[in-house]
Design a protein that fits this description.
By secondary structure, this protein is of the alpha+beta class. The chain contains 9 helices and 4 strands. Helix 1 packs antiparallel against helix 9 and helix 3 runs parallel beside helix 6.
Length: 221
């Protein structure tokens, strides 16, 4: 049995949760907060969440976990069949994470956790996020899924990260940068909102946010 460890506010946690749900892999969830990292360093060497626990031991880094799940549970594949198309799907995921979400993440301290971010950081993030979203747009197809006609792992990645990018950019810049630089993503997100597993995940995310706020522990991401 797979145990998904972390908390449901994290977009990387929800990325893996969607993968597990869509692949119909039985799993349990264990709530683990970042400030508890000393208790799970054996499973996640840097104390990062999410991570999974398996019959063989722990495994961390969300993309590594995704690849592990795809390899171990092939019955419902979330990558295309051909080697080149699989690589292109991974390429899109890489751009979404490293060149878009990780840029927007610099804003989360102020947007979500009650801290402040310097004006210089905001300007730099705005510039880099513009570049990153534009690059992702050159790979995205939105026909109707982000990588084409079928649902893939890239959709699990895109949905959770686009959600955070929209929230962060709207809060910091009073502008939905996703809508500005990836206009086709607006209808895509509305389309994805109706997917049953996404509806389940988002409802549980709301409950997790309530529980997280109740902890009343400072956290800057």
């Amino acid at each position: 049995m797979i145990t998904l460890c972390g908390f449901g506010v994290s977009n990387y946690y929800n990325k893996l949760k969607l993968i597990l749900l869509e692949k119909q892999i039985p799993f349990e969830e264990r709530v683990v907060y970042p400030w508890e990292r000393d208790s799970f360093l054996q499973a996640s060497p840097l104390g990062k969440i999410p991570f999974i626990e398996t019959e063989y031991g722990g495994l961390s880094e969300s993309q590594v976990v995704l690849e592990y799940l795809e390899e171990c549970y092939p019955a419902i594949p979330l990558y295309p069949a051909g080697a080149y198309e699989r690589a292109k799907c991974r390429e899109l995921i890489q751009h979404l994470e490293l060149n878009a979400e990780w840029v927007a993440r610099r804003l989360y301290k102020e947007c979500f956790f009650g801290g402040t971010v310097s004006d210089e950081t905001k300007r730099e993030a705005h510039e880099r996020l513009t570049v990153g979203l534009t690059a992702a747009g050159r790979l995205a197809k939105f026909s109707p899924y982000i990588f084409g006609a079928t649902f893939t792992a890239a959709d699990c990645v895109a949905y959770v990260h686009f959600t955070m990018i929209r929230l962060a950019s709207s809060a910091i810049y009073s502008e939905d940068m996703l809508a500005r630089h990836l206009p086709l993503a607006v209808d895509y997100m509305a389309f994805m909102d109706e997917r049953p597993h996404i509806r389940t995940m988002m409802a549980e995310r709301a409950a997790a946010m309530t529980a997280f706020v109740a902890q009343n522990v400072p956290y800057d991401g």
